[in-house]
Design a protein that fits this description.
14 helices, 22% strand, FAD/NAD(P)-binding domain, alpha+beta
């Protein structure tokens, strides 16, 4: 198996293939999670939005995959997160009933797929005082209470991608970064090592294209309508240091919300927009000025002290690989379903979908590969029952002998991270051990890999500048020359 693309989809396909006993190679032009996978909302969605649009199948699939991630595959990288919608007079009763109905339907899905109350709680109404306790930055005038739902949150999306790729490597997959595919067919590819410049050809029984919004560059038969989603980075204290998601309806819409997400390093993310991305598909998309204004304006409708541009310490945007659908003009209306497309060249492309359902996308892609290319004799998918590296039972995470910060990021591997040598620390409390682990165990080849992906300090330019020396020192301790 040759898998092209080192985002969450490609890593998932590589794990599914390798765990079936297939000799597997994954190649990525840049670094793991260097594209769309690192620009998500860092959530493990249960599919509530898809229920609102009548897409029950996708909603159930999302809830089922969320269940697996939070209970079996990666309990150390996920947690339950309260979503609080503040309710203001007039109209608070009607709005509360509408939001409560949606949360109730989502909770029904949770129960249907078997996620226990101990992992995700049931939704319910909040009084005024409890709303202020959970989201203390909201405006007090006219506040009557709130509605609280629950969903899953990832510690970080890149950590999930790296964990999946490392688990695939544990089953024998070769995971190669800085290797660019220049051309591909159904039985092989021509590639170039971007470090040495050397070129090579690889033969394979099956080639899977998992390059997301860039899938059309490998397979011209793939047609997508990418949309751009922007998030802002602000200090958590500007939102009262809340550990919950402040969720605010977009005026004029019955199904769209702007929300905050608690983030590492004492920060919070505010998102998300959904606008057409156009034909340019940069690796690092630029947030639109109008998107930043929209996010601030919507969030400020419920804040006691409105946010200004000066409060925005960073911003990031990602491109969603949405399948084309002539029935819809707005990208926000397009389905998040995934599909397996067979190219005229023989390449199989796994496209569409979203981060939460990566495992099912990978399973479906590999099932298609077995059916169309590999034939009988290949084992069925095993990934429903394969914990990712670092996985540890949620109820026993506190027993691990390491700082809670490290346990949240590395799970069962946290004690091994903590035993690494000391050295210069990075900004925001990122330890020298975390930096060195990124080099020794997680495939970081450059300072950018460490700061922009393994730690996410690159979200804020000042943090990045303050951490470059510490990152360089981590490479030196590991005995690796950075690119």
């Amino acid at each position: 198996m040759l898998v092209i693309g080192g985002g969450i989809t490609g890593a998932g396909v590589a794990l599914d293939a390798a765990s079936r006993g297939l000799r597997t190679v994954l190649v990525e032009r840049d670094d793991l999670a260097s594209g769309t996978s690192r620009w998500s909302s860092k959530l493990v969605h249960g599919g509530l939005r898809y229920l609102a649009s009548g897409q029950f199948g996708i909603a159930r699939e999302s809830a089922a995959e969320r269940h697996l991630l939070m209970t079996r595959l990666a309990p150390h990288l996920s947690r339950s997160m309260a979503q609080v919608v503040p309710l203001y007079a007039p109209g608070h009763m009607t709005r509360g009933a509408y939001v409560g109905l949606g949360y109730g339907l989502g909770d029904g899905l949770r129960r249907l797929v078997g996620t226990p109350d101990a992992v995700l709680h049931s939704p319910g109404p909040l009084g005024r005082d409890e709303t202020l306790r959970l989201v203390p930055a909201v405006r007090r005038e006219g506040l009557r209470g709130g509605m609280r739902g629950w969903d899953g949150q990832l510690i970080d999306d890149v950590r999930l991608v790296v964990a999946v790729a490392r688990t695939a490597a544990g089953f024998g997959a070769s995971v190669l970064t800085r290797v660019e595919v220049t051309s591909a067919t159904g039985d092989g590819a021509r590639m170039r090592d971007r470090v040495t410049g050397s070129e090579l050809s690889v033969r394979a029984r099956c080639v899977i294209n998992a390059t997301g919004v860039w899938a059309g560059r490998i397979d011209p038969d793939v047609h997508l309508r990418p949309s751009r989603g922007t998030h802002l980075v602000v200090e958590a204290e500007r939102l009262g240091g809340s550990d919950a998601s402040l969720t605010v309806p977009v005026p004029g819409s019955s199904s769209r919300f702007v929300f905050s997400v608690p983030a590492p390093h004492g920060r919070a993310y505010i998102g998300i927009t959904d606008v057409p991305a156009g034909t340019e598909l940069p690796l690092v998309p630029t947030p639109g000025d109008d998107e930043i204004t929209l996010l601030l304006d919507v969030m400020n409708t419920v804040l006691e002290e409105p946010l200004t541009r000066d409060d925005v310490s960073g911003a990031f945007a990602g491109l969603r690989p949405l399948l084309t659908d002539p029935r819809h003009d707005e990208t926000s209306d397009l389905s998040r379903r995934h599909a397996i497309i067979e190219s005229s060249t023989g390449v199989l492309s796994v496209v569409g979908g979203k981060l939460t359902t990566y495992r099912r996308m990978a399973q479906d892609g590999m099932d298609a590969a077995v059916r169309m290319r590999l034939g009988d004799g290949v084992a069925n998918s095993r990934t429903r029952s394969i914990p990712l590296v670092g996985a540890w039972p949620r109820e026993r995470l506190a027993s691990l002998d390491a700082l809670p910060r490290l346990v949240r990021r590395y799970g069962a591997e946290a004690p091994f991270v903590a035993r690494l040598a000391d050295g210069p620390a990075a900004a925001r409390g990122v330890t020298p051990q975390e930096l060195e682990w990124g080099v020794r165990a997680e495939g970081a080849l450059s300072v950018d890999d460490l700061l922009d992906r393994r730690t996410r300090l690159g979200f804020v330019a000042a943090d990045r500048d303050d951490s470059t020396d510490a990152a360089a020192a981590a490479f030196e301790r590991a005995g690796v020359d950075p690119l």
